[in-house]
Each structure stands twice: as C-alpha cells, then as structure tokens.
Amino acid sequence: MITLHGFAVSNYYNKVKLAMLEKGLAFDETLNWATKDEATLARSPLGKVPFVEIDGVPVAESQVILEFLEDAHPQPALLPADPVARAKVRELVAFLELHLELVARRLYPQAFFGGTVSPEVIEATRKDLRRNLDAFMRLAKFSPFVAGDAFTMADCAAVVHLPLLSMATRAIYGEDWLAGSPSKAYLAMMKERPSMQRIEADRKANQAQMASRPR
Q1: Whether residue 164 sits in one domain with residue 92
Q2: Pair 122, 37 in one domain
Q3: For the chain, what is the domain count?
C-alpha cells in the first residue's frame, strides 16, 4: 500500500500523483501542509512534501519516489527500455527542475503570494530564465510528448512545472514566456488526459481549502 502525503496545490505533489495515476496504482492520500511537526519530520526530515509511505516505510523527494515507482511497478513504463533514451528522459526532468522551476521559484513570493522580490533578484532571474528556457527548448521534443512519442517521467514534471513558469513570467515581466512555443499545444493536449483532469479537479478543491485556512 502506498500513501501519498502532501497537498494538491503543490506541483511536486502532483508530479508524483500523476505518475501513480498513469500507472493505475491504488494509493491513499493524506493531507499535509508541509508542517514541521515531529511526525512529519520523522518521515520527511526537512518537512518537505510530497513524501510517501510504502507499507509504512517513508520515502521523500519526488524524483526518488518516481524512480521507486518505476522499479516496483515497471508497467506501464515511464522510462524507455533503451539506456540512452532513459538517460535523456532523466536529463529533461533534471533540466526542468534545476534550471527552470527552481529558478522561477525565486519569483513566486511576488508572483503568487503577495510578497515582494527585490529588483536585483527579478533582473538576475530574467537573465537566467531566458537562457535556461532557450536551452530547454533545444532538449524538448514535444512530438507529441516532451521526450518524444511516449508519455514518460519527463511529462510528469513538465505538465506541473511549465504552467507555473507561464504564470510567474506573466505576473512579474508582463509576458508569458511560453507563448508561441510548442509547450502551449502540449499543455492543451495534456489537459485532455483523464489523469490530468483528476489532478486539476483535486488541485482546485485543495486551493479553495488552502484559501480558507486560518492565517
């Protein structure tokens, strides 16, 4: 039995959830707002979500969880059989998360949460994101999936991270930096998948729940 801990507004939570839905796995969900209580820290030492419990054994970090799912439940596959093709999928995931999502995350306090980001950080992020986005577009295939003709782990990452990049650049720089790129048609296609429709419905419900939390 797998229990997924976290909250459905989190892109990394939804990355893991999407992989489990695509694999047709049975799993439970337990709401955790990334609290730092002892019960959470005992299972996720930094208090980060998502984390899973696999027959009671906790495992944290979204990519580690996806690799476990592929090892334990290899069909349907989220990695190609060829070792080089597998490496290219992992390369895309690493690029999306290290060079796009984590860089764009510098903007999130102002883009999404009513905070402010210094002009220096906004300008430095502009340069980094422009360079990194151009590089990502050299790697991505969008034919029709991110890594090629099959749904892979790279799609589990891309479909939850790229919309945040769009929203953050539009909020901070007044322009959606993905506009006009193949990613727009890709994201529209992905919205038609039943797994993504489940993800989006649960995200909206959790967003309303988050808005009503005491502050």
Answers
A1: yes
A2: no
A3: 2
Pairwise CA distance, residues 170 & 183, whole Å: 15
The total number of residues shown for the chain amounts to 215
In this predicted structure, what is the pLDDT of residue 214?
A: 77
**Nearest-angstrom CA–CA distance, 65 and 116:** 33
Tokens representing 101 are 């999502």
| Angle at 49 (CA atoms; ends 47, 55), nearest 5 degrees | 95
Q: SS3 for 139?
A: helix
**Cα separation values, 75 from 41, 80, 88, Å:** 32, 11, 19
- Which domain does 62 fall in, by range? 2-76
Q: What is the pLDDT of residue 147?
A: 98
DSSP conformational letter for 180? T
DSSP structure string for 78-127? SS-SSHHHHHHHHHHHHHIIIIIIHHHGGGHHHHHSS----HHHHHHHHH
Cα–Cα distance measured from residue 114 to residue 117, given in angstroms and rounded to the nearest whole number: 10
Is the CB of residue 13 less than 8 Å from the CB of residue 4?
yes
Beta-bridged to residue 82, according to DSSP, are none
pLDDT along the chain (215 residues), means of 10: 97 98 97 96 96 97 98 98 98 98 98 96 98 97 98 98 98 97 97 98 94 80
Residue with tokens 């309303």, as numbered in its chain: 208
